[in-house]
Design a protein that fits this description.
Largest sheet: 7 strands, antiparallel
CATH superfamily: Mitochondrial biogenesis AIM24
Distance between the termini: 53 Å
Number of strands: 17
Oligomer: single chain
CATH architecture: 4-Layer Sandwich
Length: 262
């Protein structure tokens, strides 16, 4: 199925939203709860599946929806369709501070693999599926587990990431990065996990025991602030029940937590 052609505008800087402009009859699909506002003339409906396969049967839709549930996503996707006249707009926003990345799927070979929770919205006709990581090391230590999200189509798709996003083009080079900082990569990129070399670097380098390694020819998108890192810092500095933490963020504070059983 050929994707609908949609126009868009990215609004904002650190807490962005994307405004999609629809012509009559055009549809954009989005994750449940991602919509920010929509103009009169646009209707929405929660459907099981992404609508990329017109003749898809009920059992096939149920299987696809079941795979999404395994990844922690909603069973349904919301379809926004312009049923009126003229051009109308609908906007979507990410659930945490960061950047929205517009990707023209036709320009990067028609497919990308991304974090399981990074998809925001896309033109109708885009196939959203689950990709199971076949490499044991990447599955256990890659930050994203065995489950990644696979987008396929020839239209516009939008993913979101934490902080600032940088796009890198690999032409046979190798790129190493923190496992949580990887947002997405195009076809032609081989993704694996490597253990940090040296005991001192492992335990005192602050970069973790493992790093993501990407090789090949294609594009890689990297985020500066993974949501998991932000959440960890918030939890670390949050007051504990019954009083404030003492020595939070310090070695003594961590030892105190272990002694108290936290």
């Amino acid at each position: 199925m050929q994707c609908h052609e949609i126009d868009y505008e990215i609004i904002g800087h650190s807490m962005q939203m994307v405004e999609i402009e629809l012509d009559p009859g055009e549809t954009v699909i989005a994750e449940a709860g991602a919509m920010n506002y929509m103009e009169e003339g646009i209707s929405f409906e929660a459907k099981m599946g992404d609508g990329s396969e017109v003749n898809q049967g009920f059992m096939s839709k149920l299987f696809s929806a079941g795979k999404r549930m395994i990844s922690g996503e909603s069973l349904f996707m919301t379809h926004f369709t312009h049923c009126g006249q003229g051009k109308k707009r609908v906007a979507f926003a990410a659930p945490f501070p960061g950047s929205i990345v517009p990707i023209n799927m036709a320009e990067i070979g028609g497919e990308i693999t991304c974090q399981k929770d990074s998809f925001l919205c896309a033109a109708l006709g885009t196939k959203i599926d689950i990709a199971f990581n076949r490499k044991l090391g990447s599955g256990f230590f890659g930050g994203e587990g065995f489950i990644l999200e696979h987008l396929q189509g020839d239209g516009m798709a939008f993913i979101h990431a934490g902080g600032t996003v940088i796009e890198k083009e690999l032409n046979g080079e190798t790129l190493r990065l923190d496992t949580g900082c990887l947002v997405a990569f195009s076809s032609g990129i081989d993704y694996d996990i490597e253990m940090t070399k040296g005991l001192k670097s492992m335990f005192f380098g602050g970069e973790g025991l493992f790093m993501a390694t990407l090789r090949g020819h294609g594009k890689v998108w990297i985020q500066s602030l993974p949501f998991s890192r932000l959440a960890d810092r918030i939890i670390e500095h949050a007051p504990k029940v019954g009083g404030s933490r003492q020595g939070e963020g310090s070695v003594l504070g961590s030892i105190g937590d272990m002694v108290s059983g936290d």
